[in-house]
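Slide 14.
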Amino acid sequence: MSPAQKTYTVAVAGLGKRGVHHADAISKNPRFKIVGLCDIDRGRLDAAKQKFGVGYGNSDAARMLVDTGPDVFVFCTLPQIRLPLIQAGVGAGVKLIAYEKPIAMSMNEGLEMYKLLRGAGVKTVVSHQHRYGEHYKKVKDIITSGAIGRVHTVYGHAIGWMMHMMTHMIEYASWYNGNAEPEWVAGQASGKEKFADVHSSPDYICALVQYSNGVRGIIECGAGAPDVPEVDSMWHKCRIGAQGTDGFAEVLTGKEGKGGGWRAVTKNGVMSGPGYMDYEHDMPPYIQDIADWLDDPNKVHPCNGETAFKGFQVMMAACRSVVQRGRVTLPLGPGEPELEALQKALP
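Slide 15: predicted structure.
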């Protein structure tokens, strides 16, 4: 059977909203077959088994992987259990692991995860799938065309807090900068209320990022980040873009009927267009690119884990910068867990 005809087997753990989005897109792609489902909530597990016509279900992800032996392991769980699920996937011999951001809860955990993944040769994909939105791609096309001149600044901000949103902002801003290497980060943060959240975070954080090509990045998340009044849905108040010598181009994430789209001022004039976050649109190509990468190692997934790991380091460097009161050079090594250190340092 040629690679183009191969069907890859998939096991999915975590069947909340995001897990079901993944399972739905996977079930509709003929290149994949779901062979196992997992959730600690029996009601959600049974509903998903019926919805997707899957016979195998379990509340233990590691047991599911042993029993089903899938090519691909997808998990959409709370962020506190990344490492054990990565260990379970690698131990079961999967070819690719796709999982949600943030990729880890600390730099130490991330380093351990990626040492294990690289040693086993397991591919990873991280859920930064909004880049498939037509408005996100339009902004990238405008920047790449040279219509805004030489890019000197990229930016991203969201009023959602750090562990929910910051790696999204870093991922897309870095993409708009051609994925140049980040060299150092200077950060500032305030507020401790959101440390009690499942996605433990300061109430507000900002990061200045210096890239190897001379471009400066400005990333902000949480209460105090700039509002996007054009968008009236809280989690979609995200603005990402680039400024150049001849203008700017930016995307507003938005939601259908609640703002969003893209806009630009270039040497060709003032332009704008529609767009909004839509899982029905964004998930199918995200899943198809997994099949393409499994077929051909040269077709690296746009949301590959190595790129996401660089973005995660930028976020952790911002936390370390607040604690150390100075700029932090990349790449990062191990250290005191960033969230704990930041919570202690903030007044």
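Speaker note: The chain has a mean pLDDT of 96.
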